[in-house]
Every structure is written in C-alpha cells, then in structure tokens.
Design brief:
489 residues; 22 strands; Alpha-D-Glucose-1,6-Bisphosphate, Chain A, domain 3; 5-stranded mixed beta sheet; 8-stranded mixed beta sheet; 4 domains
Length: 489
C-alpha cells in the first residue's frame, strides 16, 4: 500500500468507487479503518488525550456512508468516542471542536469537494483549525508503520444532528448583523436564490427562508451524490452560468452558490452578474476594510493587478501570496502573530477565511456576511455589485497548463523558472514583480500587452500553470507569442 499517495496537501484524497477506467480503488474499508486508528494514535501523541472524542460528518458522495462507517469503526476500536454527525458541511465539522454542544477533541469531514463521483477523502480539524500537510504526512506514516496498535477499551459511537446547531449559529449571526426592526425576519423583502448543486448546501436556503427571505427559484437543494445538474463548484463555468441565469430570470436581488462541502461560495448580483474570483475578493475586501480600515488582505498568487489597485483604493494592503487555501490562511495567521493586522485570507477559488470566524474557510459564513451587507444596502435601494463598480477587470485572461514529463519534474520545473527569469529580465518592457512568493510573475508594460503573466509549479502535479492577463484586446496573444519565442510553449 502506497500510503503517501493518499496525501493531497492538507487532505487525504483517493479513489473510493470503481467506474472510471484506469482508476483503481485505494480507499478501501481496511484502509479507512487504519486511517481512523492512526488519527486516534496521532491525537494521543500530539494532544495527550487518551480517549479523544471525534466528530465525523460527510458530504453526499455515493461512497460517503461506507467511508464514514469504516472510519468510525476504526477510531472506536482505537479507543475514541465518536459522534456521527451524518450529512454536514466541512465548516460545521470544525465548529464541533469549539461548540459547547460537542466539545470534540477533533473532527473529520468525509469529502472530496468538487472532484468526480468516484473520489472521496478526509479533512481533519482540531480546535486550532485544519491540519497542515505535515500533520497528514505524520498520520499516514503511523498507518504505514503500524504504530496504531491499541489494546485498551474500545470507544463508543453516538449520533447527533449538529447541522441544526450550526444553522442556528448562522441565522443568529445574520439577525445580529442586520438588526432589522423585525428582528426575527431581517431579510423580509429580499429575494435570494441558493444553488447547492445537489451538494450539502441546501440547509442555507432553509436559513434564509426562516429569516423572511423569498427564496423562490433556488435550485438543486437536495443532496445527490450523482450531481445530476452541474458540478457543485463556484469555479465551474456551467455551474455559474446556471445560477446566474436563475437569478436573472427571477429578478432576484442576490444569488449564492456553494461547492459540495460548503467551504467555498460565490455571489451573483441583481442582473445575473457573477461575483466570483477577483470580484468576490474585492467585494468581501471592501466590507472588511469598512470594518477594519488598513487591514492587510492575503490572497493567492493569481489575483489581478486591478484587484491590488482596488484594495489599495479602499485603504487596504494587498499581500499576494501562494496558491493553496491552507497557505493563504496560514499566512494570514502568521501576519497577525507578527503584529500586522489581517482580517481576511482568501483564494480565488472561493476559500475565504475571516479572522472574526477563527480563520475558518466557511462558504456559508462568507455568504452570510455579504447578505448582511446586502440587506443594509437594500434599505437604501442599493445593490452589492455597486460596491465593486470601480474594480478594474482585465480585458482578457487565460490559463495554460504545461505538462512536465521529466521523472524529476520538480527539479525540471525549477530549472524552467530560472531560465525564464533570465530571459524575462532581458525583455524590453518586462519587469520581474517583487515581492513575489510563488513562481515567476512578470509585469508587461508594452502598449500591445499591458498585463502580466505568472508561471509556477502546481502544488501536487507534474504541471506548470501559466496565467496571463491583459488590459488590451489581443494582449494575451501578444504575451503568449513572446513566451513561445522564448521556448516556454
């Protein structure tokens, strides 16, 4: 068994079901039971708790029940007391570790986010937040070495509906934030559509309805692991087109779309305008900077120059960091620990972590915060998309994924970056962007280009993503042409 292959950054991911040619199942019942035992062993080592309480939830994937059951069995055999939370969201599972209702030592979410139906995985939390990649490596090493053996008393398993507790938490946050005359129905008069993509986000529509919102036109609320309508992913073009169309034809005030396990979301404006990626970062940054003037906003590496200008115009400081939601979150936490005030760490994928919310990337909390702001604007006859009217959007953008075939692809990729840096430095009108924390970012100031490009290594795969943006028509092609002449493409 290749245990290391199961690691995907700060998660465990693998194939749980047959059905796709060439993809063999590696998340078997035995493997998941071993991971459950290994996690309990890791908790004993790192937290000193002999019989930890572990809360376990899952998304609606077809393999979810089997994997959840195997994990619970393994963890209980290793002496843990397990709380089965059933269908849940990833952020809710973190909340079990700090909620007085459960006070779990740790929690686990069975999910593979938006990946194909045959995949599944595990995300792990303690009260300090999500585990880092080094922690996942340690758990898998325990599994590989068989260190999880335990001869003490078995733990027990109980069942709890924690999503009702979490839903009350979100509903109370909206009530307190809006402070409407009708306290129990602060969203009365607003029309908000929810698209759950048949993932686990349907509970959010119930929250909005209970708060007085008209949710007519909401779609794909029922969990279905086949994902029959569209992939539950705010970055997916088909998914965004579907919810944008729903908002437009119903003339709703706002739309919200979630990924499968609800740790990511995006917003749709009054006329069906998608507010995701740079626009979403700009919108939540504006809200945060109104509350915390001068805050640093941490983003991933592929954000646009227009976003940096927008954040600066709102009095904030843009700190463009690395790809990977845990990288972004950890950087936000690090800045605060070092005395630099940071209230928002957000990736273009929709992972948004707010300091006020334990730096937890929670799609429902993000949506709730923006809905609070939208409700206040609605009283004045205004719409949220007006906040980002001054955001400079690129005319063109493109991502090219360059596959690397060299067996030592990391060393090869590093050499490519060195060579391209040397060549870019010789190119007229091109400037190496500093500071830069990932790959090579180059600003292109020639009139026919007016943009930038970023070349970096993928976090996990033998691929070098190349992102190009331009503020002029034909600019991406002009930049791409030069890169080809330099031997990159």
């Amino acid at each position: 068994m290749n245990w290391k292959k199961l690691q995907n950054g700060s998660d465990i991911r693998g194939v749980a079901l047959e059905g796709i040619e060439g993809e063999n199942v590696n998340l078997t019942e035995e493997v998941i039971m071993t991971i459950g035992k290994s996690f309990v062993c890791w908790l004993r080592k790192t937290m000193g708790v002999e019989n930890p309480t572990i809360a376990v939830g899952m998304d609606c994937r077809l393999s979810g029940n089997a994997i959840k059951g195997a994990f619970i069995k393994g963890a209980a055999e290793a002496g843990a007391n397990v709380v089965d939370c059933g269908l849940a969201s990833t952020p809710a599972m973190f909340m079990t570790t700090i909620s007085d209702t459960v006070k779990a030592t740790a929690s686990v979410m069975v999910t593979a986010s938006h990946l194909p139906f045959n995949r599944n995985g595990l995300k792990f939390f303690t009260p300090k937040g999500g585990l880092d990649s080094k922690d996942i490596a340690a758990i898998l090493e325990i599994a590989e070495n068989g260190e999880y053996a335990y001869d003490g008393a078995k733990g027990n398993a109980t069942v709890m509906d924690f999503m009702s507790v979490y839903s009350r938490h979100i509903a109370d946050y909206i009530r307190e934030g809006v402070k409407a005359d009708d306290y129990d129905h602060p969203l009365k008069g607003m029309h908000i559509i929810v698209d759950a993509g048949n993932g686990n986000g349907g509970f959010f529509e119930k929250i909005l309805r209970s708060l007085g919102a008209n949710t007519e036109g909401s779609q794909f609320l029922e969990p279905d692991g086949h994902f029959p309508n569209h992939i539950p992913n705010p970055e997916n073009a088909e998914a965004m087109a579907s919810v944008c169309n729903a908002v437009e034809i119903t003339n709703a005030d706002l739309g919200v779309i979630f990924d499968t396990d609800v740790d990511r979301s995006a917003i749709i404006g009054r006329k069906g305008e998608p507010i995701n990626r740079n626009s979403l970062i700009a919108l939540i940054s504006a809200v945060i900077l109104e509350e915390h003037p001068g805050s640093t906003i941490v983003t991933d590496s592929v954000t646009s120059d227009g976003l940096a200008e927008y954040i600066s115009s709102k009095g904030g400081k843009h700190h463009r960091f690395r790809r990977g939601y845990k990288n972004v979150i950890n950087e936000g936490i690090r800045l605060n620990e070092n005395g630099e005030e940071c209230w928002l760490a957000i990736e273009t994928s929709g992972h948004a972590a707010l300091r006020e919310n334990h730096f937890l990337d929670d799609g429902a909390y993000l949506a709730a915060k923006l809905i609070v702001h939208a409700a206040k604007m609605n009283r004045e006859g205004k719409q949220v998309h007006e906040i980002i009217a001054s955001l400079k959007q690129p005319k063109e953008s493109k991502e090219i994924r360059i596959k690397l075939t060299d067996p030592d692809f990391k060393a090869y990729g590093s050499k490519v970056l060195e060579d391209m840096k040397a060549k870019a430095e010789e190119m007229s009108g091109w400037t190496i962007v500093q500071p830069n924390y990932e790959g090579l970012r180059v600003s292109c100031t020639n009139a026919d280009e007016d943009g930038w490009w970023l070349l970096r290594m993928s976090l996990h795969d033998p691929v070098m993503p190349l992102n190009i943006e331009s503020n002029v028509e034909g600019g991406v092609e002009a930049i791409e042409r030069k890169l080809k002449a330099m031997g990159l493409l």
